[in-house]
Amino acid sequence: MIFHSASIRNCMKKESKILTLHPEGKKGVNISLTRYEQIKKFIIDTVRTKKEISFGALADLAVSKLTGKFDGKVTWYIVTVKLDLEARRMIERIPGTSPHQLRIPAKKPTDPKK
What we know:
The chain is α+β, with helices and mostly antiparallel strands. Helices cover 45% and strands 11% of the residues. It has a single domain, classed as Arc Repressor Mutant, subunit A (Orthogonal Bundle). It is built from four helices and five strands.
């Protein structure tokens, strides 16, 4: 029996995707939810552990730890997911740093009037 690639694709379960956000409101990209979650966990865990880390150091660490264990271009995914996490305010750039440093934002106190 001969299968065409379209037939095989139709038989395979569709992979879940996520549309990423951008901190400047630019158009995001659709990426694999599995890959997104893997990179998100790496970024959040690393920034939480290091307290502050430069983007370059984060990217270098990701390449050294994830290459061969991750299906995709590690650096591209780090950039894409980092921007998404900034837009979602899960991480933030530290103002006035060059090269830019990242951290987990401080929790803001809740307004007792609300």
